[in-house]
Structure formats: structure tokens, C-alpha cells
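[SOLVED] Need 3D model of a two-part complex

Original post:
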Amino acid sequence: MMLLDQKQAGFADAFRALVEGRREETADVRAVVAEIIAAVRAEGDAAVLRFTERFDRLKLAAGGLRFSAQELAAARAACSPAALDALGLAAERIRAFHERQLPQDDAYVDARGVTLGLRWRPIDAVGLYVPGGTAAYPSSVLMNAIPARVAGVQRLVMVVPTPDGAVNPLVLAAAGIAGVDEIYRIGGAQAVAALAYGTAAIAPVDKIVGPGNAYVAEAKRQVFGRVGIDMIAGPSEVVVVAEPVADPAWIAADLLSQAEHDEKAQAILITDDRIFAERVAAAVEAQLAALERGSIARASWQAHGAIIVVNRLDEADRLVDALAPEHLELIGPRAEALAATIRHAGAIFMGAFTPEVIGDYVGGPNHVLPTSRTARFASGLAVYDFLKRTTLLGCDPASFRALAPAAAVLARAEGLEAHALAVERRLGGEG
Amino acid sequence: MMLLDQKQAGFADAFRALVEGRREETADVRAVVAEIIAAVRAEGDAAVLRFTERFDRLKLAAGGLRFSAQELAAARAACSPAALDALGLAAERIRAFHERQLPQDDAYVDARGVTLGLRWRPIDAVGLYVPGGTAAYPSSVLMNAIPARVAGVQRLVMVVPTPDGAVNPLVLAAAGIAGVDEIYRIGGAQAVAALAYGTAAIAPVDKIVGPGNAYVAEAKRQVFGRVGIDMIAGPSEVVVVAEPVADPAWIAADLLSQAEHDEKAQAILITDDRIFAERVAAAVEAQLAALERGSIARASWQAHGAIIVVNRLDEADRLVDALAPEHLELIGPRAEALAATIRHAGAIFMGAFTPEVIGDYVGGPNHVLPTSRTARFASGLAVYDFLKRTTLLGCDPASFRALAPAAAVLARAEGLEAHALAVERRLGGEG
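Solution:
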């Protein structure tokens, strides 16, 4: 953990190093992924089955790629009622929050008599990648699938690898709660290729979303253009801005809930009280000792954690905007004022009783958020990601004549004679 | 030009070939671009100046990278009043259409007492790439810059290469009309790198938009993640669905206005009348003979043009959705009904007096649109591309207690103990 105190020399440089520090791995898996995609395009299901046997140690027939209704019912029956109830509450709250995002179409006639419009339509078919193994998160299934369903996507397809045949029943139950239409037990670049290009068993989709390892991320990059993709997610991060009114143990717990994700995760506390900072640091050490995922959390906290002591908390907004964090907790009397001036954050959690974890599961807003300072230009997943827009334009003869001369002048200025002629013929000049 | 008649055998296969036919070039410029970006990151302005001398045959000093106010005033003075007036009309109409897109923030307290919100904020700084040479289109400057300005972007930076020092004054005038803040006479991958990473002379931006050649497109791909980028545009296309009420010469002119862009451009007519189809084909041939850009238009029409004769125009919506065209003209009595059912098109132009060219310049909607069937999942440029969202969540002790148990159950189900502890400590279980 790095302690930065604004009162000490070198603060600006140390803070800049923290902002510029990159945490991504850049394993070069490009060639391997390109080969897998080419094989799936050429051979279809045969290639998908071969890679699934090789990477997941699972021998399937094409007819066995898809989970059956019976398998899904059995998975749900294997889940605890408490977990299913919790997923139900989460789904209800996520749906309610995202339904408010549905945009209105626009249609109007302007003062020159031109008919104008902008309308939103859902993407036809969406593929959702869900990681298998330890990173199989039912909450992520809800967060990715529900906004698609709210947008009106007709066909929602999920892929999830099942190494050695193992699958998390709660992941399948979450897919059922979210209304996923088809689920295939495949993963990796081969699953992304199957979704993008289609096989005999799996019809192609128009967009692929969801997190994955370096192979999945690279496969999404390579099929981008053929289909749409969501952001490529980097390691997760939280910034907590807390005044000394908060319980240091709570703040430490919030920092550690971020740090336990991944050794590359980053947890940062910003406060204006040095004593409080030291109490939080001590609480982190105390809690680390007993954590199940303590070795991951400790590695993250040691390498990427930071506590920043500022002279005046009012100025924390500048630091937060420079960090542009994925998650931002604001705790203390100045929280409201800071929330109003901060420009760059994926999601803001207000007050001591809103730990990020509430938002990870049952808050309602999406937990798929822009990482690694991309909140400067990117947003969390939303209904908008599953809609696309079409604009409409209509001129009658009178409004056409009002606009046509300017269009012809600009077309000729750009050296596009055929453009000019398309309007001039209608003006009668060259009909 | 390919003539497909639904009455003839093999129609389905021929149509599928048309839909699947790819027109992109895939020049592999990856390594060259990676070198240029690395050099700009390492050496800053020195590398930018060196590449500008090499590729644009232009020797500059760092102080001369930016156009001065005097140069911009002189450029504007060199433009014809008619062209400036036309740009002014275009800018006014683009601004009016895009201002209606500004979304509303959301903020509410739900039935459980949880405070929720979603707010939109502009991206701080945006870079706009403008191609030099023959593809220097002042209309594109307006279409890219005005939505950014409407969104509230604080700093709007333009780069435009000036090979041998040559610049199109109308491009600079358009930048002035659109409110661009800084203009640099650089292009290629070096300009993209300078915008993404910054140099001593050019502060970095958060997102880069605008069209460019294969080097520029690849550079945008490589800096993606460090900054945001817009879609990578492919060759342009139009689909015209016309009933025989229309003047064949007008339809031919519209097809050719698309074909003159680029030998890889694509113009397609769909009609239900074989005689009309042949009249349009003849009109295309007649008009081609006299066009300034006739050789480009002819190459496009021969290689990629198509006329599709369908049995019933009511079914054209299926064909259009399969093509998912960038531009779609609907002409004839069935236009309204077709517009209502078509799902995938970047922009629709309604009626015989709305040639696409009106929309290219002065209609109001954006002319930066999804190409190559990406309208299935992508949208034209809009104010949304220059905004990003932050969600807000706030619980008081009562609403926290209502949600916390479900969050803890899900955290433990996902094996994330520190997540569970962050809520359980606040519930008093482990405080």
C-alpha cells in the first residue's frame, strides 16, 4: 500500500504515478485466437467440439452443446431457496432501474416543413459470455441479461464453459430468472467465434457482451465489426472518499472487498485526516489476516492499494476525476457536494450505509462498469447498449426546394458532382 | 451491376451472396502503425514533426503545428460566400436536430427508500480526425464537431494533414462554424498518437472520432482503451426501395451519388417492376458517361451495384433488414408502411424529394452512419457519443438493512467472503 500525504514533498509526482500506473496484462494471444476463429468459421460445430474437448476436457456431440430444459430445471432445484430469493430480489431491482432507461422515439416537423425523426430499436440477437470456473458469477448473468431483455432483444443466447463438465447451478438459475433463451456449454475463443459466425447448432448473434479471460477478450476484439461487442474490461477498482466520521473497520472492509477480486484490483482511500488514514490501514491489516481470499487481497493491497491524505476534502474532486474510478464511495458530510462536482466515475455510492457490495448485487444500477480510467469516456452497461438508432428525414417538394441549393453548393465544393446532380435533377435543372 | 429477379431460380443464393459479400480491404498496417505510435509516445513532438516531414512532405517546427487565428481568418476569407452560407444553414440544422437528443438525468427514491440516479456528463476533451487531400469534406467536420459541442465537450481539437502544405479553406471555415477550439496540421497514425498520448504542443484528449485511411483506422484501434474511439467506417452504401411512380433518372442519380464515393461503395435498387428496373439501369448507363467521377462510379456500379426485382414490395422489409444498409431511400405509396416495419438501417430518407444527398449536407440528422451491415447493432454518430453516464446509489440505515441480507447471501454464494463481510459488519454481525 502506498501512503500519499499532500503535505509531503513529491505528492504531485506520486499521485501522477498512481494515475498512470497500468495494471493490465498484455499476453499476446492474438495468433492462437485467430487460428481458433478460422477453424470455427471453416468447420463449424466440429471445431467447437474439438476445442471444447481440448480446453475443457469435455467430449460432447453437437446435440449436447445446448443445456436441455430438464438440465436447467435440475440446476434450479439444486440451488438453495435463500440464494434463489436473493437472485429474485436482485433481478427485480435491476429490471426496475433499467426500465427507466428506455428512451423515447422523436418525430417532428420543423419550421421549414421537413419531417424529422430518431427512433430506437432493439438489436435482434445478443450473445452473453459467462466465465466458468471460479469466476462464475450469477450476479453478472443478471447484470448482462436483464438490460438486454428490457431493451426488447428477441433472442438472448448464453455461453458458459463447463471444465470437466462442472457447472455452477446458480449461474444457470440466474439465466432462467433473467430470461435467457438458449444456453450452450462452451467457452473460450471458440464460443465467441460460434456466436459471431454461427454453426449448424448455434445461430449467429449481432452483439456479444460479457467478461472473459485474455482469450475471450482477444476473440471479441477480432470479431468486432462482424458483430458488436461491449467494452473490454480491465481489473476492477474502487476509490473511497471518507471523512473521519466513518468506522475505520467499515472502510477497510470496503477496500478489501475490492482487493479480493484479483491481484491486479485496486483499492484507494482518500481522506483529510492522517490519524483516520492510519486507523483504516491498521484495520485492513487486521482483517486481511482472517480472509479466505486473503492472499489475493493482500497482493492487490500491497501492489496497488493507496491511501491519500489531502489537505482539504473539498479538493478531492480533482483527484477523483484524475483517477476516473470504476466505483466511488463518498462517505461523510461533504459527500453530496463532492458528488455534484465529480465528473468521472462509473458508479457513485453515497454514504456509510451504501458499501459498493450493495451495488454489486441488489442496488439496481449495473455492476458492469468502465475500468482503468475509461470512465473519462465510457459508461456502465445499460439498456442503450442493446438498442440502436435510425434517423428519419422527409422533404416535400417545398422543403426540398428550400434546402436543395445549399446541398448542391456543398456537393460541388467537395468535388462530388453526382451528389449535386441528384438534387439538381429534382430542381429541374438537369431533369 | 447484378440483376436479381425473385421470379428466377437461384434468387435466394444470389441474395445471400450479396449480403455476405465483403468490401473491406484488410491491408495489414499493424506493425507500421505500432512503430509510429511508439515513436510519438517516446519522443513527442519530435516524432510528430519527423513523420509529418516524411509523409506530408512538410517541414514544421513544434510552434507551427497549430493553425493560428490569422491563418483561420484568412482561410475563411478565401471561401465563397455561397459556400459559407450553405455551411451556416447546414450547421444550424445539424445543431437543431442534435440538441433534441440531450438526455435527461434521472433521480428518484424507490419504494424501499433507496435513492437512485443516472446522470449524463460530457467527455472533457475530444479529438476530431479530418482527412486531407481529396477526401477533405467540410460537411464531415460539421457532422462530427457539432454533436460534441452540443454535448458540452469543453475542448474540441481537430487534426487535418496538409500534404505539401495544401489545405482546403472550407474545411477550416467549417471548423470555425462548428466551434472547434484547436486545429493542428498533422495527420496519419502520428496525429492519432499525439491526440491519445499528448505531446508538449498538443494536450491529450479522451476520445477520438472521425474517418481516415487504413493507417488512421488501425491507429484508432491501437489506442482504443487509452481513449475512446468511434466506429471504424467501411465503404459507404445505399439501398433505394422505389415503386415505378418515381422518375428513373432521379433514382439513377441517387445510386450514382453513392457510387461516386469510392470503387468499393455499393448502390442497390429494390423494386417490384422489371420494366422500371431496366429503365433505371439504362439511366445509370446514360448518366455515367458524363460524370466527372465516372470511372470511380462505374467501377463501384459494375462490381458492387445491384438491382433486385421482388414479387411483392411489401416483402422488401425482409431484404432490407438482411442488408442493414447505411442509407435507405423509400420512394412510393408503400414507403410509410415499409418504414414502420424495417428494423435495421442507419438513416431512412422518405419520398422522392428526399435524396440521400439532402441528408449528407443539410437535413439535420448525422451523416456519420454504420456501414457494412453494422446497422444491425450500431448507430449513427449522435450527442450520446460525447456523453457518458454515472449511476448513483444511496441507502439509509433502514433501506440498507432491507437489502443487505440478500447481498451477503449472493456474495457468499460467489465465494467472495470480503464482499459479504462489508455488509455484515454494517449489520453488526462482525462490527
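Edit: The radius of gyration of chain A is 26 Å.
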